[in-house]
Amino acid sequence: MRVPIPHNLDKDTVRERMRTRSHKIADNIPGGMADVQTSWPTEDRMAMVINAMGQVVRGHVDIEDNQVVFQVDLPPALSFVEPMLRGAIEQQGQKLITKS
Fold it and tell me: What is the per-residue pLDDT across 55-64, written as a single tens digit (0 to 9) for each?
């Protein structure tokens, strides 16, 4: 599942906000009790491993000039939550990068 979130910020600002707020990702995963591990394999990519509802989901976030792209690889057993997850990413992803 690919979810782009547009922004009009410079990449340094987006990187900093993603780094300092990535711990909030788990708070927005349906079902609660999620564990999210993040790493930065490159300057503009944050990798994620999400453990939730007995499943392990992998994904990443690419920081681009005009958008942040969340890519989540849902296993077939969780395909039914894709619409709900897409909506949560769109809403909460914007909050991760906006000034608060």
Answer: 888 999 999 9
